[in-house]
Design brief:
Helices cover 36% and strands 0% of the residues.
């Protein structure tokens, strides 16, 4: 799941994809099987309201990671 301290991004989706890609790589190096990896963009965590709305509109871009996507968006304030 993506999360960070603060809500500053150079480019929301690029930063998110880079961070999640690093997490996927770290999991693979640790021996987690590819079929067991799911990415979560962390809606509501380290993001502003506008970031969350943009993320929902552009979540299809996360498919470039090649992993299933989990969007835990229930009960969020945005």
């Amino acid at each position: 799941m993506h999360n960070q301290d603060g809500t500053k991004y150079r480019n929301l989706m690029d930063d998110l994809i880079d961070s999640l890609g690093e997490s996927v790589d770290r999991a693979l190096r640790a021996g987690v099987k590819w079929d067991n990896i799911i990415v979560d963009p962390g809606i509501g965590f380290g993001k502003t309201h506008d970031h969350n709305v943009e993320l929902m509109a552009r979540c299809h871009e996360l498919h470039e990671l090649g992993c299933p996507l989990l969007a835990g968006h229930s009960r969020k304030g945005f």
